[in-house]
Specification:
mainly alpha
């Protein structure tokens, strides 16, 4: 038969707080957990008391915190790496082309228009003014030669 104060809360039952303090003090150094204290109080007072209720009540009563068990420090689990896939080339990779002699007139930035190659002819670490390729490039920003430099295996469309 439930206690008459059960619907108002188990902590209103006379003597339950004192018993909690007693169990907390007795098991401070022992291995009895807060869940086990809650189970013992539930059994003794025939009222549902949860582990979280015991923890909260102990904190509100300013009871000293109990020593934690020794934590086991485990080394981190090694990451499973997926096996690297090797690229399989069905056709040989074309050798790098030798620089060709210019048979066209390089353009400056002011001469660039749609339909001409916008490949910068100077090295990356040089300073402006840059000159650009200027060959006809009807569909992209680069002429077929420079597009092959950017996409050696062909453009994915």
């Amino acid at each position: 038969m439930p206690h008459p104060n059960a619907e108002r809360g188990p902590w209103l039952t006379p003597g339950i707080t004192e018993r909690l303090i007693e169990l907390h003090a007795l098991t401070g150094m022992a291995t009895m957990s807060m869940g086990e204290i809650a189970a013992k109080l539930t059994f003794e007072y025939d009222a549902l008391i949860t582990r979280n209720a015991v923890i909260g009540r102990c904190q509100r009563l300013c009871l000293p915190s109990r020593p934690q068990g020794q934590r086991i420090i485990r080394p981190p689990k090694p990451r499973k790496r997926s096996p690297r896939r090797r690229n399989r080339f069905e056709e040989p990779i074309a050798p790098q082309m030798e620089p060709q002699k210019l048979t066209w007139c390089p353009l400056t930035i002011y001469d660039l228009r749609d339909g001409v190659c916008k490949w910068v002819l100077e090295p990356v670490d040089s300073y402006p003014p840059y000159t650009y390729c200027g060959r006809p490039a009807p569909h992209t920003s680069w002429c077929p030669h420079h597009e092959h430099v950017v996409y050696p295996r062909g453009r994915v469309r």
